[in-house]
Each structure stands twice: as C-alpha cells, then as structure tokens.
Specification:
- With 317 residues, the chain is α/β, with parallel strands linked by helices.
- It contains 9 helices and 16 strands.
- The protein has helices at 38-48, 61-73, 112-125, 146-156, 167-173, 185-192, 199-211, 251-261, 266-281; strands at 2-5, 10-16, 30-36, 53-59, 77-82, 88-94, 100-103, 131-135, 160-164, 180-181, 196-198, 216-220, 226-230, 233-239, 299-302, 310-315.
- It has a 6-stranded parallel beta sheet, with helices on both faces.
- Strand 6 (88-94) and strand 7 form a beta hairpin.
- The model has no long low-confidence stretch (mean pLDDT 93).
C-alpha cells in the first residue's frame, strides 16, 4: 500500500485552448476538473495500476468535499484532516503543442493544531504502508522542517519514504534520510546553488543531494528523460516521443508513482517511472495513466551517460 501525504491539495481545472491570446475572450475546446496536488496524483496513478493507496489530506470547504468525492470515485482511499480554511482551486491552460500555463492558488493557512493533527494522522494511518510519499508545497502555517519530521517518523516506523519537495523544505529533510527524492532540473539547481544546464551537471547536483542524506535521487529532466543516482550508481532513462504531448501536468507525479509501484529501486523501477511519466504527458489534463497506456518497451536505460548533453529545460538556482 502506498500512503501519500499532500499538505496543500487542490482542485485542478484544465482548459484546452487552440491558442492563448491575452486580452481576448477565448473558447475552450475542452475542459475537465481533476483532484490536484503532487501526492494526490501519486495516489491516483497507484490506484489506476491497481495498487492500494491512501491519501492523507487537509480538506476544507466545498472544494475539499468535492476533492474527496472525486478521489473516492477513482479508487483512492481518503483520510481527511478537517481544516478551517478552504481547499484551493488551480487553473491550467493547455495549448495544442503541449504548452501548459498554470495558475496555482496559495491555499489555506493551517493552524498549529491542524499542522500537528496532519502529522499525527500520518502516524496512525501508516500501519499497512510499504511507502509513504510526502509531496508538494507546504501551506502557510507549516514550518520548513515539517517534511523532516514526516521523514523521521516514517524511518522510525521502518516504512520507506519518498519526498517530492523543494527549497528549504527539501534541504531540511535531507539529514533525516528520505529513501528517494524527486526533484526536477530547477529544483536540483536551487538545492545546490548553481545552474544545471547539462546532464553532467545534473548528475553532479544529484550526487551532492545523495551525499547530504537522500538514499536515491530520481530527477525529472523534461525531454531529457529521468536520472537515477544512488548507491547503485547512475542510470539515465530516455524514450522516443510516442504520440502528441497534451500537457505535462502530473507527469512527474506519475513518474514517482511508477517508480514506487515497481519497488522504488534500480533500473527496473526507473523504466517504470519513465513509462508512467511519458504516458501521463499523452493524456488530457492531469489524468493518470492506466497499465494499457504504458509503453515500457520503448524506454532505454543506460549507464554510459553523455555528460556534455545540454538539457532541453535547464535549471537555474
């Protein structure tokens, strides 16, 4: 069972537009509303693969009620922590060439009591979990070391923990020893304080985060695939485009889910991760892929990395 924790979940509405023209009235070619938040997406991808999953979420107001209903309809067990504030709503504008413009709301501020209750709820819900995945931004009211406390609690209980966070929250959690972290190129650069514009620089940044406490680093490099750095060395996964990219919303979350579903270790899990992430990019909105959407046979894994390869989407600190 995969237990996910999303401290700042959302309702995500996606509009598909022929083009994004500022200052004009635009008519959407299609629209949909999905449960949102990085950990929420990990649970949705796990459920689509038939893996039992529970999402621990702070929920408030009508958006929180709808979010729980939508997740239940997708086979995700929801353990809600009731909060006084209202769950946020985000908007994504998707263009035919795959360009995605996102407008993310700040979200509610949690009280000290709500913050503590959220962590306590994870502790009481983890009994059957093989993985705990803490994902996404921290809302107001949660200190930067909140994820560090989550990682420490999971490690004490003997449960493997994955972390998809950034900035001070990621740096604070590294000494606690998360089993895997999943930054993108920009988060790698911000974490080490220098640009990441080549595959070699991405490897160096990931190795630095590994040395600071991460058991493994699963780095999303956009069109340059996925990078895995850990005790087993360095692996790089790429795949040829197979169909039009409809958007990248949730692709990184699907990749993390694929990694955990396949055991969360080694080249086999890396292959699963990229197959899930690439499949998510071919689906509308933030729809998570089902097994029939995956093309793992098209994923290439190599340890002989072209370190001077420029990244298509470089990161800056």
């Amino acid at each position: 069972m995969i237990l996910t924790v999303t401290p700042n979940p959302s309702l995500d509405r996606t509009y598909e537009l022929p083009s994004l023209d500022r200052g004009r009235v635009l008519r959407a070619a299609g629209d949909r509303i999905d449960p949102g938040g990085k950990g929420v997406n990990v649970s949705r991808a796990a459920a689509a693969a038939g893996i039992p999953t529970t999402a621990v979420l702070p929920l408030g107001g009508a958006p929180g009620v709808l979010l729980a209903e939508l997740l239940g309809g997708q086979g995700v067990n929801v353990t809600a922590v009731s909060i006084a504030g209202q769950t946020r709503s985000n908007i994504s504008l998707a263009e035919p060439d795959g360009t995605l413009t996102k407008i993310n709301a700040t979200g509610p501020k949690l009280s000290a009591q709500e913050s503590g209750l959220l962590l306590d709820t994870v502790r009481t819900s983890r009994a059957d979990a093989s993985w705990i995945a803490g994902c996404g931004s921290l809302p107001g009211g949660l200190a930067p070391d909140w994820y560090a406390d989550l990682v420490a609690a999971a490690r004490t209980a003997g449960v493997r923990v994955a972390l998809d966070a950034s900035g001070p929250a990621l740096r604070a959690a590294l000494p606690a020893g998360p089993d895997v972290i999943k930054p993108d190129a920009s988060q790698l650069a911000a974490s080490v304080g220098r640009p990441v514009s080549t595959l070699g620089e991405a490897v160096g940044a990931a190795q630095e985060l590994h040395a600071l406490g991460a058991g493994a680093v699963l780095a999303s490099l956009g069109r340059n695939g996925l990078l895995l750095v850990g005790e087993q060395g360095v692996c790089h996964a790429t795949t040829e485009p197979a169909g039009a990219v409809r958007g990248t919303a949730g692709a990184g979350d699907a990749a993390l889910a694929g990694f955990l579903i396949a055991g969360g270790d080694g080249p086999g899990a890396l292959r699963s991760a990229l197959a899930h992430g690439a499949a998510a990019g071919r689906l509308p909105g933030s729809v998570m892929p089902a097994p029939s959407d995956l093309r793992p046979d098209q994923v290439r894994i190599t340890r002989d990395l072209p370190l001077d390869l420029p990244l298509a989407e470089p990161g800056t600190p």
